[in-house]
Design goal:
Elements: E1 3-8, E2 17-20, E3 34-39, E4 43-54, E5 66-71, H1 80-92, H2 97-104, E6 112-119, H3 132-143, E7 146-148, H4 149-156, H5 162-170, E8 174-181, E9 187-194, H6 201-210, H7 215-229, E10 234-235, H8 236-243, H9 248-255, E11 259-266, H10 285-300, E12 306-310, H11 316-329, E13 333-337, H12 345-355, E14 360-362, H13 368-379, E15 385-388, E16 400-406, H14 424-435, E17 439-443, H15 448-455, E18 460-464, E19 475-480, H16 481-486, E20 490-491, E21 494-495, H17 496-507, E22 511-515, E23 524-527, E24 544-546, E25 551-553, E26 560-562, E27 575-578, H18 582-592, E28 598-601, H19 611-620, E29 626-629, E30 642-647, H20 651-654, H21 661-673, E31 684-689, H22 695-699, H23 704-717, E32 725-733, H24 736-754, E33 758-769, E34 772-781, H25 787-804, E35 811-816
Parallel strand pairs: 2-5, 12-17, 12-18, 13-15, 13-16, 14-15, 16-17, 19-31, 22-29, 22-30, 28-29, 30-31
Antiparallel strand pairs: 1-2, 1-4, 3-4, 3-5, 6-7, 6-8, 9-10, 9-11, 20-21, 23-27, 24-25, 25-26, 32-34, 32-35, 33-34
Bound molecules: adenosine-5'-diphosphate (ADP) and zinc ion.
Amino acid sequence: MEQIVEVILPLPIRSNYHYRIPEEWRGSIMPGQRVLVNFGRKKIYTGLTRKLISSDELTVPLERLKWIEGLLDEGPVFNENYLQLFDWIAFYYSCTPGEVFKAALPVGLKPESAMQVEMMPDLDWEALDLEDKEYQLLEALSIQPVLGFKEITDIWDIVNPMPRLKTMAARGLIMIYQQVEDRYKPKYKTYLKLTENFQEEGRLSDAFDGLSRAPAQENLLLKVVMAYQQGQMAPKTETIKALGISSSAVGALVKKGIIQEEDVQVDRLALSGYDAPPQEITLNAAQQQAVEEIDTIFSADKRKPVLLHGITGSGKTHIYVHLLKEAIAQGKQALYLLPEITLTKQIIDRVQQELGTSVGVYHSRFNDQERVEIWHKVRKREYDVVIGVRSAIFLPFQDLGVIVVDEEHDYSFKQQEPAPRYNARDVAVYMGHQMDIPVLLGSATPSFESFFNAQQGKYGLVQLLTRAIEAELPSIELVDLRMERKKGQVEGLFSKVLLKAMEEALGRKEQIILFQNRRGYAPYLICQTCGHVPQCINCDISLTLHKEKKHLRCHYCGYTELNTQKCGNCGHYTLKWAGIGTEKVVEAVETHFPNHTVERMDWDTTRNKFGYQQIINRFENRQIDILVGTQMVAKGLDFEHVTLVGVVQADHLLSFPDFRAFERAYQLLTQVSGRAGRSQKPGRVIIQTLMPDNVVLKSVQQPFEQFFQRELPDRHNLHYPPFTRMMRIEIRHKDRNFIEAESKRLDSIFRPIFGQYLLGPDYALVARLRNQYRMQFMVKLGKGLDPKEVRKALSEAIERYYESAGDKTLRIVTDVDPF
Ligand code: ADP
Ligand code: ZN
């Protein structure tokens, strides 16, 4: 009998695999450790040990098992709670444990082997009779002895170099092997210090004497000495830059043996380091009461999540910080989850100031190396508090005392691609329940699911319905563009009402936000002669005009075309733009207000790492008068001088073909309205529309609860969430006939399982994406269906389909609780 370990591999395979443990590691392997194992054809992966079993439980002969190749951790990196959580995520979201493991760890912590190629030793390659490609590769190897897959595909300019490489190996020209590479590379910084010899006074003054005709070296040495006297070293790059000298001065002093260089590993996350006494905030009466209500619910039952419904500007952040503080005071860690675009420096600063300590930040803009560093710090408890986006839920906390999910309704908590298609808010709720951690969900416009749960008593509900400073919410006015146009009260994109309000706000030196949820100049073009709309060649989607970049672009796959104004269908030069994008709005603002600064904040202007933050800083410093943007401007921002918010055209928000369209429109419009009048000055919101009678637009002026109660019966009658749970089964294939035929076959397999609860198959909203056709089934999981049974039946059905399918190239993707 021998101890065997079951390992989760970071791959989309259904089951875990068993491995033998080499003698020297027996007894030191526990569940939740990272190990290196062989899988498939000679490739090495990082796996996670799941459990230990005895060899007599095996169904295959022991000799067939492979051995563990390496042990990466001394103790578990995930405790049993986390391992169970991963199992639950895999079950609930219908994916594999391997996919969850893959998502849960930064790439840098999962070393894998990669193919490497070397020339055979002592090969006299220049004397051989070679084909061009062989010659190219050997020549490259003579310069750089080891090449990887990517480099070889570049050299040869082909996608799959394997067949040719194998031929070359067979001819004895090269060796191909697998090598595990550590993908995490520590970052170093070079410092300068005195060598030991010259640390003594006398030698040092001799050294200075010798440098009297080399002022650059003399100044440099002076800096190094000054640092030395303070017990420090001089940073190389900064020092030579400050002195305005070249690095050859360093080389010269090193050569003379006076100074030496030293590389020190540095912290990539060194941006924080906040240290000041906490800024005391006096909660107002309403906030104080909310805090007490929350505490009461948690002390009665820690495992009951609380929904904090607080209107925009009610001061929810203070309440979150209060909870974070309580957790720290109990010696625990705390996690504060935010949507990607609200995780700004502004909010980090605010939280740090109120807490009086620095917090860890986990943002999607961080590269993998930075993620590895924060991961280690959380594990070692160097951070008590982490502010992060959805994947921060997987950080290896040792002892969490609270999880706060701000803007809990936000769609960015849901991962779309790849699996696991989890919603971090729901994972947090599950985690809280499983690990006894209080979970607070907060929002001004809660998701229907959460508010319904609160009404049903599954969640506690705490409401904060007054603004923190001035009691007034901004006034919201609807402008009927059609009517105004008839009356001649519209100039281009703007009604005179909005223009006048803008003039007044600018006149009072206040700031303005204009919201238009489409980027580019115009969402689509249309030919005035033949009605043709230019489409992406890879997707069934119209191309957006980007005037600044002078091209048409697909927002789904990135395909671009030059903007020629010539219709691809009829050849006339009569393409005309239609609809309004943010670029167009900026152009219009510039013509109306040439003496004011306007900037655009959307995906295109914020793509680099700091772009978003820079725009926010300029707006905060009032270098920008008018900020035009997509939903990026709707969320979370807190600027005291913004008194006017304009919605340029609300209509396309309302015509989205989805049962959540109204919920979503209400959320966005309420959130963007909430940016106005957040401090003493009163705010004003003007929404321009062609459909002033739409219920959502009418509701934006009303409290959330009223909107919710009016919408709820429709959800009930049509069997939509929160009364059911949805599951989307999407199929993808490049051939249209094939996908249609297979969708019918799948229908006949699914129908007996789901019956009336199955809808479809239909083409997805974007029927073709990156050259793949996409069709979908929807399942409404009503009360009559047991979720466990359904998932089991579904995965069996999919297995059956693949077993019986002649052609297995169809991809099937399940998405639970899709957006
Ligand atoms: P929310 O997140 O609910 O929209 P915030 O937490 O951003 O609201 O608060 C809105 C503004 O009101 C912020 O500028 C905040 O500093 C201020 N504020 C909230 N509560 C207080 C308080 N008790 N004392 C002083 N200022 C407050
Ligand atoms: Zn495309």
